[in-house]
Amino acid sequence: MSTFRSNRDGRVTAARGLLVAFALALAAGGAYAEPDLDVDAQVRARQEVSHKSFDSDAATQCFMDLRTRLSVGAKLEHNTKIFVQLQDSRRLGGMDAFGQDQSGALNDGHNVDVHQAYLAVDELWGDGPGLQLGRFELNLGNQRVFGAVGWHNVGRVWEGASAVLDRDGFEARGFWLKRLELNDPVVNRDFDIYGLNTRLKNSGAEIFVFLEKDADRMDGAVDTGIDALSRLNLGAYYGRKFEALDIILNAVYQSGKQRVTDGATFAEEDLAAYLVTFEAGYALDDDGKTRLAAGIDLSSGDADPADDTCKAYDNLYYTGHKFRGFMDYFLGSGDAGLMDLMLRARTPIAHGWLLKVDLHSFSTAEDYAGTAGATKSLGTEVDVTVATKRIEGVALTAGASAFMPSEDWRGPDADTAFWFYTMFTAGF
């Protein structure tokens, strides 16, 4: 048996055993404290038909992803909580970790992992701050900066610690996230994130600052003497509803330094980039289900990549599929940045059925080299979504999207790209 397989088997066995051990530990501790157990499960199946290549002669992909989650939470006494969530994420009919068929074969996919596992203390002392330690999701604001990417078949989680001070007018959350722990005994090569997010409860505003510190000075076997990244992110989120009108705003400024190389030497490059998003919506009925909205999502670009300052915004750790169109062409902005002008509409079409239509016009913030010279044009996307919970016990969402690329971006012979999906979600 290969070392890879042996290690993988060990991780899978540990993941499966953790939930069992957790339940046994709670049962064994029942004589001292009877925990308040909360068990949740969710199964989500999503069928996708994808033709995103802009070439009508290319093959159309058709596949289904399955995500299964099992969660156990326990409240011990009045102050301490434990949460464990196991997850299996797979593409039906795909191959397992060892390159073998996982469907119709006499083997399993070895695909179970610990998605979240943490302990949380509500108050470390008196009415002091709370503490969270372990592996957990992190969502801030409307997830334009930090998000768990719930659409994804795996989702984003962090490992580290978070402290929360909750008061009547505000909630302050400090966090230390370990993006990478190399534990090098000679030189610090870890990637850490240190942050503070303050939510002002009565205003709908959040203010945050966080530092990304990648202390790895090594490039292969070469000690460059320069850290890979030291980036400070300062920003704010504002989301509020005024009767029929609602407003959503994000603003982020990035500064600091990053290591760059020309292949022979290494140097530090300054960072100076920004993100601004704004959306205003208006409800046409009393319950807010019929809504019209318009907005902009602007990430700065770098007009002169050859100078010593990078002005291209890094999209960080946001929930990408939620923004910039459902076809996910522009999860990253690139050196030229990105501007997304959008129109949105939603309305009930029958009892328990909701229709949503989004229109996106994409261009870059700075010129890029298109097929016919310098340009900013990219194309237009239309997303249509239908959602219902009329099927008892199941949430159904279905969507169809089309992207019409500009000739500058994809050339005069590019075809319209299409994407369809149907998603069933059930749980308790």
Can you tell me about this structure?
- There is one protein chain.
- This protein is mainly beta.
- Helices cover 7% and strands 55% of the residues.
- The chain is built from two helices and 21 strands.
- The strands form two sheets. It has an 18-stranded antiparallel β-barrel. Strands 10-11 form a two-stranded antiparallel sheet.
- The radius of gyration is 24 Å and the shape is globular.
- Residues 1-8 have low confidence and may be disordered.
Summary keywords:
globular; mainly beta; two-stranded antiparallel sheet; about 425 residues; single chain; 2 helices; 21 strands
Number of E-type strands: 21
The average pLDDT is 91
Find the structural class using helix and strand composition.
mainly beta
Main sheet, how many strands, which sense, barrel?
18 strands, antiparallel, barrel
Radius of gyration: 24 Å
Q: What is the helical fraction, as a range of percent?
A: under 10%
End-to-end C-alpha gap: 39 Å
Uncertain segments: 1-8
> Which geometry do the CA atoms define?
globular
- Distinct helical segment count: 2
- Strand fraction equals over 45%
The helix/strand order is: HEEEEEEEEEEEEEEEEEEEEHE
Q: What is the multimeric organization of the chains shown?
A: single chain
